[in-house]
Design goal:
Elements lengths: L2 H13 L4 H8 L3 H13 L3 E6 L2 E9 L1 H22 L4 H26 L4
Antiparallel strand pairs: 1-2
Helix pairs in contact: 1-4, 2-3
């Protein structure tokens, strides 16, 4: 799976259903590229398209249970990789990481705000 596909699934998991145009903007790709990507993920059973109850002209891309499971599995694999690597650090290095956690959390908040783009 491409990084853009994985990132799109994670965005849907984090933010809920989105328009293709919104997903394209958040992921930094063109709308035609996102449309093609959504088609492939839809054929794989990872996402589905649904109408927007508040605007019948709009179609939203929604994560399926298979897509949510993929995101959870991928995230858990990342956690396990970091656990293994952190286990190889010295005590001083672990302390330095702990001291850096507030700054890392702030970076995560900034990145999340940047990726979500303008609110509708």
């Amino acid at each position: 799976m491409s990084l853009t596909s994985a990132a799109t699934l994670a965005t849907l998991e984090r933010t809920g259903p989105r328009r293709i145009t919104d997903l394209a903007a958040v992921e930094g790709v063109t709308q035609p590229a996102m449309t093609a990507l959504v088609r492939v993920m839809e054929e794989s059973g990872l996402v589905e398209r649904r109408g927007d109850a508040s605007d019948k002209r709009v179609t939203l891309v929604c994560l399926t249970e298979a897509g949510a499971s993929y995101v959870r599995t991928r995230r858990q694999a990342g956690v396990q990789a970091f656990e293994r690597l952190i286990g190889e650090l010295t005590g001083d290095e672990v302390e330095a990481l702990v001291a850096a956690l507030p700054a890392l959390r702030h970076l995560e908040e900034l990145e999340s705000q940047d990726r979500e783009g303008p609110k509708r």
